[in-house]
Every structure is written in C-alpha cells, then in structure tokens.
Amino acid sequence: MRTLLNLIWFVFGGFWLALGYAAAGVLLCLLILTIPLGVAAFRMARYALWPFGRAVVPQPDAGAGSVVLNVVWILLAGWWLALGHVVTAVAQAITIIGIPLAIANLKMIPISLFPYGKRIVPADSLAPGDRPLHSI
User: Fold this and answer.
1) What SS3 class is residue 120?
2) Among residues 83, 102, 86, 124, which one has the least CA distance to residue 9?
3) Where does the record place the Inner membrane component domain (predicted)?
C-alpha cells in the first residue's frame, strides 16, 4: 500500500515539492554560511519525493544550534516551502482520492518549517516504544 501511495504522491505533487526543495538546496549552497541549510533542503527533497513509510522523530542531542538554524531556515526557505505544501494540499483535497495525500501534505508542514532537531527514519525501524512526531 505504501508503494501505491508513494506512486500516486509522486505523480500528484511529490515531484514538484521535491523540485522546490532541491531548488532551495541549490540556492542555499551558493554561500558557505548557508550550506548546512542546503543540506537540510536536499534531505527534505528526498522526504518530499517519497514520504509514505517514513517517520519524523525528534533528535534529542540537537542542541541550541538547531534553534538558530531553524530561525534562519524559516526566514530564507521554510515559509515558502510550507506555503507550497498548503497550496498542494488544497489542490489534492479537491478529489476523494487526493484527500489522504492532502493530509500527508499538511503533516509535512511542521518539518518544512523546523527541520533541525528532527530525523527522518524508515517507519519500519521504529522500536515499539518510540514516539514519532508524525508518520506518513
């Protein structure tokens, strides 16, 4: 079922969302100071391309630097990438088949705004006691 949802996701929005994250990654890698932001954008592009079967878990050892990077991320890229998720979710929610995709898009907004301090892991690798922030 995950593969089918991922294929539908790819066709009806995932490719364009991943392309937006990749473009942000390229732009953010132009300056040396923003290369860590570009790396996060590429990591998110991979997640936006094929999200079903993955979970977002907190990274407890992230530290105070992740807060600073999240603020810079929101200012440079996060807000318009989150807006892309909202627009895509509205377009997907028009059809009944697209409603699960729209819900998945809305679940991706928090990590598109605050990517630092979180990890994206395969949902199968979670231990029974692990609590993901969200799983698609």
Assistant:
1) strand
2) 102
3) 4-54, 68-118
Q: Which of 112, 92, 110 is nearest to 101 (CA)?
A: 92
In this structure, are residues 118 and 61 in contact, taking their beta carbons and an 8 Å threshold?
A: no
- Whether 49 is in a domain gets the answer yes
Domain, as residue range, for 13: 2-123
Amino acid at 96: I
User: Mind listing the pLDDT tens digit for each residue in 30-67?
Assistant: 999 999 999 999 999 999 999 888 888 888 887 888 89
**Domains: count for the chain:** 1
Answer yes or no: is 136 within a domain: no
CB 101 within 8 A of CB 92: yes
User: Does the residue 135 lie in any domain?
Assistant: no
71: its two tokens? 């603020």
Q: Coil, strand or helix: which one is 134?
A: strand
Scanning 2-131, the segments in alpha helix (DSSP H) are 2-9, 15-28, 35-49, 64-73, 79-92, 99-107, 109-113
Instruction: Quote the pLDDT of residue 136.
Output: 61
Report how far apart the first and last C-alpha atoms of the chain are (Å, whole number). 12
